[in-house]
Amino acid sequence: MIRVVVVDDEPMVCAHLRTILGSAADIEVVAQAQDGAEAVEAVVRHRPRVVLMDLRMPGVDGLTAIERIANLPEPPAVVALTTFDADTYVIRALRAGAAGFLVKSTPPEDLIGLVRVAADGHTVLSPEAAQRLVAMSADGRRRGDDARRKTEGLTEREKDVLACLGEGLSNADIAAQLHLAEATVKSYVSRMLVKLDCANRTQAGLLAHEAGLVKR
Fold first, then answer.
1. Torsion 71-76-77-79 (CA) sign
2. Which of 56, 57, 125, 156 is most buried, by the most CB atoms less than 10 A from its CB?
3. CB 13 within 8 Å of CB 50
């Protein structure tokens, strides 16, 4: 069972998300919160696998909550909720440790599938969305230079794997594309997260875009 906490300052949004997710046999909404402070408390109390987090809330906002949750032992995957699919606020959320983002208008059947993806530890961020977010970043050029410097120490194979993360591929898909064992890919990913000082696959994938490793 995938345990989920829903966070939004609009009760109707929380109720809508709870109804959609509750229709899936393998998903249970264990709590909802209306600001970031309540969200952190709910995570500590209920130990969910996924948190759907609104970013703009009064009091403790979503960004602050994401940072606090990322510092908890064995934190859940936090997926940012936004109204727009290209939002500079989302970039900050991803760099704070979010596993990806969802537009609030996401169709119900897609929402359920993406929550499952997040629960499995994969990126909830399309390559197209990542490219748009990087392109609109105010400090994009500086971050691109920083990203290229960070990736200079990677081997060519590690860069190949990193580029695949930027495409949003799972370990199994990367293994098939690069003709590697899935266990080998997992080892590459774990090692690169440490080398690049990335909290999760999403941050590494965003870094791949900033460094220009993702060509499509």
1. negative
2. 125
3. no
8 A C-beta contact, residue 23 and residue 107: no
- Which pTM value belongs to this model? 0.75
Distance CA 174, CA 123 (A): 13
169-183 per-position pLDDT tens digit: 888 889 999 999 999
* Burial of 142: CB neighbours in 10 Å, binned 0-12, 13-18, 19+: exposed
| CA–CA separation, 161 and 177 (whole Å) | 10
Half-sphere exposure of 135 (CA within 13 A, CB side): 7
Contact in structure between 27 and 112 (CB atoms under 8 Å): yes
Mind listing the pLDDT tens digit for each residue in 131-175?
667 666 656 667 778 889 999 989 999 999 999 998 888 888 899
Give the separation between CA 178 and CA 185, rounded to whole angstroms. Answer: 9
- 42 sits in which H/E element: helix 36-46
- Is pLDDT above 70 for 117? yes
∠ CA 197-70-36, nearest 5°, is: 145
Q: Give the C-alpha separation, 120 to 164, whole Å.
A: 17
